[in-house]
Amino acid sequence: MKGISLFIVPKYLLDDAGNPGERNDVALVGLNHKMGNRGTTNALLNFGDGSYSPGGRPGAVGYLVGQPHNGLSYMFHMMNEARIGVGFLATALGYAGFLQSVDYAKTRTQGRSQSGTGSTAKPVAIVEHSDVKRMLLAQKSYVEGALALGLYCSKLVDEQDTLDDTQLQAEKTLLLDVLTPLAKSWPSQWCLRANDLAIQVHGGYGYTRDYDVEQFYRDNRLNQIHEGTHGIQGLDLLGRKMVMQNGAGLDLLVATIGSTIERAQHAGGEAADLATDLEAALDRVRAVTTTLRDEPDKAQSLANSSIYLEAVGHVVVAWIWLEQFLAAGDSQGDFYDGKRQAARYFFRYELPATRAQFDLLASLDRTTLDMSGDWF
User: Nearest 5°: phi and psi at 11?
Assistant: First the structure.
């Protein structure tokens, strides 16, 4: 079916008077009972299974949409913006859980301060405990990083259609193409992690239906699957987007992030320190991508593409956090202090994890590739 622009759609047969008759080519088999997203019906349909005979013959009626052999390009025209939408949905669910866990942590009292005030001290709100702060900081870094990435991609969607400069339009389209698999998969993975941490902050209550965080987790779990699974996005990013136009996508991404690094270095101080860490990670992206692109065995090159997706995604979100750090500047207040602290968290706790991932990718490891199905 590759390359065939064919959509199977329901067809109403006409009766003798020319009026719509019974829908004869689609059979409703049943409803899927889902882990989450239960407010959205998901039906199992059979098309042309022989149950009915539209037009006097068994089967279904199909309509050609557009030109033959352009089906995949038509599908991706629709799907790419839908993928950004999936990222936004994952972000929204992650953000909702984050806000509820912040509220719970500020009102739930348990345990005493670890500052050594003695057993007579009153219990404190759990937000005062360092491990709870860690979980809340992680959530904040995921959901606000994902939101900023999604908004940046939305800006690219508008710019590619509204800019007068055709060359600049083409650059925005190319950059959007590169970022789309990340805008879909990174929030789907890490905002789900935020939901997981929101449950943990709630303790035993988080595992009950007394609080919404368990539903947020169930609903969000879908987003790593639909509109292209995590693995598919990895193959798309490494196998297509980073090597398209002889590597122009990679070059544009590196140049765009490099521009932010230059501004941060010029700003000096802590921003420059963060820029140094990001520059080192960006160098790994370029080097590892070149190694994988030049590997003649494409199966080996793509064997760990999902790891590549995660590592590059973290570098991109670190860039997004550096942009927010620069935007906060020297502004005072809880909002700006929170932004700066979340950026610090992401650079100190999250970005370093990419080093081991890039090492694995650079080694062209074959562990998964060489695994036999008989060994499971």
Answer: -130, 130
CB 102 within 8 A of CB 39: no
User: How many percent of the chain have pLDDT more than 90?
Assistant: 73
pLDDT at 118: 63
Supply the pLDDT for residue 17. 54
Provide the residue type at 170 as one letter. Answer: A
In the block, residue with structure tokens 């590549």:
308
Nearest one of 236, 229, 251 to 302, comparing CA atoms: 236
Q: How far apart are CA 191 and CA 360, in angstroms?
A: 25
Residue 244 structure tokens: 């398209």
Which H or E run contains 145?
helix 130-162
Distance CA 91, CA 96 (A): 8
What the block records as the tokens of 315 is 């570098």
Name the amino acid, one letter, at 69: H
Q: What's the rounded Cα separation, in Å, for the pair 239 and 107?
A: 48
* Average pLDDT of the residues in 51-75: 76
In angstroms, the CA 228 to CA 185 distance is 9
Instruction: Encode 125-144: b = buried (16+ Cβ within 10 Å), e = exposed.
Output: ebbbbeebeebbbbbbbbbb
pLDDT classification of 256: cutoffs 50, 70, 90: very high
90-121 b/e (C-beta count within 10 Å ≥ 16 → b):
bbbbbbbbbebbbebbeebeeebeeeeeeeee
Dump the DSSP string for 234-261: HHHIIIIITTHHHHHHHHHHHHHHHHHH
Average pLDDT, the chain: 90
Least trusted range by pLDDT, from 32-46, 86-100, 137-151, 186-200: 32-46
Tell me the pLDDT tens digit for each residue of 219-237. 999 999 988 899 999 999 9
Residue 199: other Cβ atoms inside 10 A: 20
At 55, which helix (H) or strand (E)?
Answer: none
Q: Which residues contact 371 (CB under 8 A, 6 or more apart)?
A: none
d(CA 312, CA 306): 10
Instruction: Tell which wins on pLDDT, 16 or 83.
Output: 83
- The reply to whether the predicted model has a pTM over 0.85 is yes
CA separation for the pair 83, 269 (Å, rounded): 37
What whole-number distance in Å separates Cα of residue 320 and Cα of residue 299?
A: 32
